[in-house]
Amino acid sequence: MHWTGRPTLASENQTGPATPPSRIILTGFMGSGKSTVGPLVAARLGWQFVDVDNVIESEAGSAIADIFARHGEDAFRDREHATIARLASGSSLVLALGGGAIDREDTRLLLLNATNTLLVHLEVELNTTLARCSGTENTRPVLADHANLAARYQRRLPLYRMAHISILADALTPDQVADAVLEAAGLDGSID
Hints:
By secondary structure, the chain is α/β, with parallel strands linked by helices. The protein is 46% helix and 12% strand.
């Protein structure tokens, strides 16, 4: 397990440990494990798990690919930002972001500066993404264009690494990643 350091939460002071977060938000490239690890972390804490993409699809009544096709990426990102802003104010919550949510500066700033929020980057190499997402090209058309996918990965990686914590997840099982998230958050992972 590796992470870049202990998070600095808004409630942390220099004389004592940080107050554990009341929400954990997972970000990372497609295939990083956000939708797999998120429910594990939430279950251990007795918290709610929410996948932002699922909420957007449910509220729009259509798939994200259809929203992109009909309204364009800018309209989708506006909807995504509004959904994240609404959901990220909840407590006892583990929230999984779509892979591109971090692209928008206002979304990044919202998540990085929200009180009692821990933004966790699940970092994987591009080869891990390709292996884990193989066979999902029909719902993730970007996977078919490897040059575009690699460029997108390289462009987003420094943005993901702005998160409070980065966990290298390539060689870890989902349970090990969940353990690392809970340890980084300073939360007791033994709660069932």
